[in-house]
Design brief:
mainly alpha, elongated, membrane, transmembrane helix, transmembrane
Length: 73
Amino acid sequence: MESLSQFGFTLLGILFCAGDVAALGVLLTWQERAPSPLVRRMRLLRGVLPGALVLGALLLLALVQTMLLWSRQ
């Protein structure tokens, strides 16, 4: 029963990581579609860098939690 819950949580972690990568792609696409280089730079500094930092931290947290889940065996 415990391994079934591990597989379930691992699947949720994989889905979370995939969503995280997709959100990062949307964020980068939003920045690239700015009408001018100045607006593109402002989007990079005010939106993309903080957003990428948060998304990267969440991705790392999900990966670490998945590794900790499987290291208990």
